[in-house]
Amino acid sequence: MPTVSVELKNVRHRYGSTWALAGVDLCVAPGSVVAITGPNGCGKSTLLKILATRLTPTSGTGSVCGLDLLCETEAIRERVQWLGHELGLYKSLTIEENLSFSLSVLGLTSPNGAIGRALDRVGLGRLPATSVAACSSGMRKRLALARLLLHPADLRLLDEPHTNLDAEGRALMNTLIGEWKRQGATIILASHDHAEVMPFCDLVVRLDRGRME
Amino acid sequence: MKYGIILVVIGFFVLAQARGLFFTPPDQLMGEVQRLMYIHVPAAWNAFIAFFITFVGSIGYLWRKTPVWDRLAASSAEVGVVLTAMTVCLGAIWGRPTWGVWWTWDARLTTTAILLFLYLGFLAIRAFIDDRRTRARVSAPIGILIFLNVPIVYFSVKWWRTLHQVQSSPSTMDLGMVTSLRLNALALLAVLVTFLYWRMRLERRRQEREEQLAMPPAIADSTGGGR
Amino acid sequence: MMRFVRCAIAVCRKDLLTEARQRETVSTVCFFGLVVVLLFGFAVGSDTTWLTRLAPGLLWLTVLLSVVVALERSFQAEAEEGCMDRLILYSASHRAVFLGKCVTNCCVIGTVQLIVGLAMSILYDLPTPQQPGLLIAALLLGDVGIAVLGTFYSAVLSKTRARHVMLPLLLFPMLIPLLVCVVTTTQAALLGDLFGETTVWLRLLILFDAIFVAAVFWTIDPLMEA
Q: Is residue B74 assigned to a domain?
């Protein structure tokens, strides 16, 4: 087990001529919960996408789970789960089909009942055959949460995990974060609501115009 | 110094053209029109060289992932498109008095026209992508695929319809014509290399300038704060 | 290897299932194809000898024109809800995802072609094919070629802010050799091989498919990452 889960050194990212990240240094210990807060457009999502290896930083270096961020992307992807702002669900498929699809795309077979258990956990257990097109945005968020439960990860990146969820859903989210932490996973979440994430975070980092404060 | 090289290249080109136009005998059958050959044929040859460089640049980018290969591929495609457009237009102008039509569906002419469209597409796609890295990653595969298509296009069109005259080979030509043709090919190759060099230089400069203008605010602030 | 196959099948199955449920793309595309077949009849005239002679070319042109819409959709649909990001990050292999899409597109193209071909044989009063085996070979090889390059350019366009019209502009010039091959082979299969040169065209067609399948699968990784 590496001594740091995430390490970023002077990471910058540019879209065209605007800098989304302007030199971010970050060091996160394994098993901690870190919140990245800040106003809209401060670079939270970009930072998470870089950690998920979806974006290559314009400059800077870093490592995730002891693996190099620029070279060992394949290995990082196997250990990291990313829940983006857009959930990446297929509207034409049912709730259950969405889960089994994301498992088969990874090339895994679903262990017996794993999908059912995940759905029960997020409160969608009775609706596996509902089409996602007919789901509310809260239900879709819960479905995306169920997808996170399907396989383990060393690092979980959650972009705005509480949006669209009702009070019960938020509580569930917080419980899950606590559980993942106990299992030894590192969690980095982005949120614009400072007060909400404060209680259960080990570290709160504030981003402003692409820089840490 | 750099401009000196340009002068040399232009001078070489002008001399080679002059030799072709004034100091080589005209063709027995085609007459003075044949002198178009001294620009038409070298342009076609060099266009192929340019597209081959694009192919090499694309492979180089996939292999090395450094922006210089992408610049090479793109610049070469631009020069190649200009040369191909020239070849096609001159071919049509040549065809009118020789065959009596502006266009024949002959293998070489048609292949060149198809190439023009393929590489215009390559440049168009590049224009639609803003991010440099994305642009390079997307255009390198296209550069490879298009070039692989060149021989297939050529043979398919050739078998589909063969109407063209026998390829002008040195044995059927006057020695003076051969020398002029080769000299012009070399001259145009020099032009190609010069264009390529300047186009790549321009692109590098543009990239540097873009990076300078878009300095990250952190750096801008720290220099401001020092004052 | 198992993971690769499973991933490709999952993508293919998902796309076909979506298609079967929504029926938007295939029905529109087929309808478009039928209208074009009808229009060609009016443009060329009702003389069936003419129509018969032109049929192979018209068949492939109609198929090309109509499937463009379906090809465009295949990667654009992924890009909409952030599904593409997930496929890139969490799939066994980019090649498997691409293969899945390719197979789906091949099925779509085949279906459209079947419908358009049947409509043509009825409306244009086409004779029974002289060499049915050759016809099937030509259709399959042609579909594979269109599917591979079409899916490739669909992936390219999903990375750009290009408008819809770009796909035919990029794809059609690439497909010219394929068009020449399949039209001549289809003609030979339909009306009889007059000059005995079908083998050459069939070989070139196989070569075309082989080269582009290999090249596309070799270069698709960096393209998907872009």
A: yes
